[in-house]
Specification:
The protein is an alpha/beta fold and about 425 residues long. The chain has 4 domains: about 5-115, Rossmann fold (3-Layer(aba) Sandwich), CATH 3.40.50.12160; about 125-230, 2-Layer Sandwich (Transcription Regulator spoIIAA), CATH 3.30.750; about 255-370, Transcription Regulator spoIIAA (2-Layer Sandwich), CATH 3.30.750; about 375-430, OB fold (Dihydrolipoamide Acetyltransferase, E2P) (Beta Barrel), CATH 2.40.50. Helix content is about 35%, strand content about 20%. It contains 13 helices and 18 strands. The chain has helices at about 15-30, 55-70, 80-85, 85-90, 105-115, 165, 175-185, 210-220, 240-245, 265-270, 275-290, 310-320, 350-370, and strands at about 5-10, 35, 45-50, 75-80, 95-100, 145-150, 170, 190-195, 225-230, 230, 255, 295-300, 325-330, 375-385, 390-395, 400-405, 415-420, 430. Strands 2-1-3-4-5 form a 5-stranded parallel beta sheet, sandwiched between helices. Strands 14-15-16-18-17 form a 5-stranded mixed barrel. Helix 9 links the parallel strand 10 and strand 11. Helix 9 (about 240-245) runs parallel beside helix 11 (about 275-290).
Length: about 425
């Protein structure tokens, strides 16, 4: 008898990606062969996203695509869109099983019961659920880097964001559990871990453990040579935390600090818990303890009520900070959030104009940052071959590097001098010599 086949498709953030890989591991342990989503399978699992209306639409499209690939397959919808649109999905012909957040570990049991004729689903009241769903990652699709989820949920309730309603309140994983998972991954050859969560800066507030203790514990595991992070809020980036981070040699000087706007009045309407000046102070402390760290961010343009003056405040502030990378988003209405009812919604044409200005500024800042590393000796973790036969990897600052050293160095860290190649577009701006 041939093995049953399962295909998974992930939408959304790195936390979702981690959970999707954990679900794949659960299916493997249950005897399923994991196949690409493009192939015919017996079970399709779509790990949905609901951060925007576009994400909702993509989630529905992928569920429909799964059904069309094999009408007889079991189609599972899991994650955030299930949490926010349960009523819409319960009657959908494209879904057989619904699994909300904090219930993904029940995947195999639910499939087994469905096969026996029990059409049940696992939907949690995420607003009242204080339990951290402790899943375990045995391996990842990336053979050198592993994303490690250590926190879930968010208590911030930014006025534009649906995530607290989709993910629930902040919950932390125990340091002991994280160490167990990372130790296993390190034994499999993973050299780099990315510590991530929905609101990573809240780690430990419910358990009494400290994020810096988690970082030190992970960095001390044999085989782990690099530690990165998901997104931080500026509030956690004080002198004490950053000075301790800088003492951990495995910590990469690459930090994503959410900004969203450089205008204090817009930040207040967004219900963000900092001012532009407080944000800048955090950046200044990072640059005090780390030499030319890569600082990346997110910016939303066209938030309700954003005036020309407020937008120019953001432009000036972004230029003042000088980011390595800036992810620009045009504000989009999200039903269920306070911002959708705010007056003075910004015209789409104006959002587009502002977005283009930010993107162009971001490209200019990115090139300025890369020039700082032209001719610098550093180490690179090489990861994969590219289409032209070279091999690519990343510096500790997450600068993408290309080399012609050969595939035998894949998975290893090599030192060399970076040289800026102005002829190469995209991210591959350096050639290692």
């Amino acid at each position: 008898m041939s093995m049953k086949k399962a295909a998974l498709h992930n939408l959304g953030c790195k936390v979702n990606e981690y959970e999707c890989e954990c679900m794949a591991h659960l299916l493997e342990e249950a005897g399923y062969e994991i196949v690409p989503f493009t192939e015919k399978a017996d079970v399709y699992v779509i790990n949905t996203c609901s951060v925007t209306q576009i994400a909702d639409k993509k989630s529905r499209q992928m569920l429909s695509r799964a059904r069309s690939k094999n009408p007889d397959a079991i189609v599972v919808a899991a994650g955030c869109y299930v949490q926010t649109a349960k009523d819409k999905l319960e009657g959908s012909p494209n879904v057989d099983i619904l699994i909300s957040n904090n219930k993904k570990e029940e995947l195999v049991r639910l499939i087994s019961e469905y096969e026996k004729g029990q059409k049940n689903s696992a939907i949690s009241n995420i607003a009242c659920d204080r339990r951290y769903e402790d899943m375990f990652l045995a391996h990842t699709m990336d053979h050198t880097r592993a994303f490690i989820k250590v926190q879930d949920g968010c208590d911030q309730f930014c006025s534009y964001c649906i995530i607290p309603y989709a993910r629930g309140r902040s919950r932390s994983r125990s340091i002991e559990s994280v160490i167990s998972e990372v130790t296993h991954l390190a034994s499999k050859g993973y050299k780099e871990v990315v510590i991530t969560g929905i609101h990573l800066s809240s780690f430990g507030k419910d358990t009494g453990e400290k994020l810096i203790d988690l970082v030190k514990s992970v960095a001390a595991i044999s085989g782990i040579e690099r530690v990165r992070f998901g997104s931080f809020e500026p509030c956690i980036m004080d002198e004490e935390f950053i000075s301790e981070l800088s003492s951990v040699k495995e910590v990469c000087p690459h930090f994503h600090l959410s900004l969203q706007s450089g205008s204090d009045s817009v930040l207040k309407r967004m219900n963000r818990s900092y001012t532009a000046e407080e944000y800048f102070k955090s950046v200044s402390i990072l640059r005090k303890y780390f030499n030319n760290p890569a600082i990346t961010t997110d910016v939303i343009c066209g938030f309700p009520g954003e005036t020309d003056i407020e937008f120019e405040e953001t432009i000036d502030f972004v230029r003042r900070v000088g980011f390595y990378e800036m992810h620009v988003f045009k504000y989009s209405k999200r039903p269920g959030t306070r911002a959708v009812k705010m007056p003075d919604q910004v015209r789409e044409e104006l959002k587009h104009e502002r977005s283009q200005r930010l993107i162009e500024l971001g490209e200019s800042m990115r090139l300025d940052f890369l020039k700082l590393y032209d001719g610098v000796r550093t180490d690179v973790l090489f990861e994969e071959e590219d289409a032209s036969g070279g091999i690519t990897g990343f510096t500790r600052e997450y600068i993408k590097v290309r080399s012609t050293l050969g595939s035998h160095i894949c998975g290893s860290i090599k030192e060399g001098i970076l040289t800026l190649d102005n002829k190469v577009g995209g991210l591959e701006n350096f050639v290692m010599i």
